[in-house]
Amino acid sequence: MSESKLAGQFFDAAIGLLTRVRDEESGSIAAAGTAIADTVVAGGRLFAFGAGHSSLAAQDVVYRAGGLALMNLLTVPGTTGVDVMPATLGSALERVDGLASAVLDSSPATAGDVLVIISLSGRNALPVEMAQNARALGLKVIGVTSVAYAENTRSRHTSGGFLRDHCDIVLDSKIAIGDAELTAPGVEAPFAPASTVVTSAIMQAMMAAAAEELVARGVEPPLLRSGNVDGGHEWNGRVMTEYRERIFYRH
To answer: Which one of 80, 135, 156, 220 has the largest count of C-beta atoms within 10 Å of its C-beta?
Structure first.
């Protein structure tokens, strides 16, 4: 069977983006890891938020093997996945003013916690207001976004600002506007988005940096093991019991 030229091109594009992020965002990723470690040591809580397909990278660090047990998903009803009907409603909700404030006010997030906000474009009302309001409440905000959008598109928020303008730490995914890496004769639209691959890698690199920082301070990172290996359930039970006041997906 012959190899697919376009499949290979996508891998090359994704690897190129991952290499750029590794080399150009290393300082910011380390800073994000330190902020997370600071919060773990101080007794704070960790949250991740993303709307639409950005929610995939947020979900990827919540309640999973090899992940920090303390990372919680901050959910906005109707925006977490494509299971909402119609799927276009999720996109519409990202542009609704005031929704982020309502969600934060009813969440367990409080001053001293960390909130990682993922938004590829960073231009819609929901992620911008989420960052604004979280900082006003005293949370530290880490934004994962594509800075290209802030430099070459217009904000949809009334302030005219983007997610990157309201974060303590910004991680740039380097994804080009439109989120499609390939074009080809006979294909009318660009295709093969890489934002999920790159953003998920950023999130896992951030978690690795946090674990490294915790170990350097003599603190065992509160990690989960796979439930499909012997002893995994027992390990996870111990971790969840020890940190039960800071884990909200188990209640």
So the answer is: 80
Q: Is the peptide bond before 86 cis (omega within 30 degrees of 0)?
A: yes
**Separation between Cα atoms, residue 17 and residue 24, nearest integer Å:** 10
CA-to-CA dists, residue 91 to 85, 96, 229, angstroms: 11, 10, 39
Residue 205 amino acid letter: A
**Alpha-carbon gap, residue 153 to 28, rounded angstroms:** 23
> How many whole angstroms separate alpha carbon 57 and alpha carbon 82?
14
For helices 5-24 and 26-42, the axis angle rounded to 10 degrees is: 70
Which structure tokens are listed for 148?
Answer: 């290209």
Average pLDDT over residues 39-46: 97
Three-class SS of residue 6?
helix
226 pLDDT more than 90: yes
Distance between CA 42 and CA 166 in Å, rounded? 23
In this predicted structure, what is the pLDDT of residue 223?
97
CA neighbours within 13 Å on the CB side: how many for 17?
A: 24
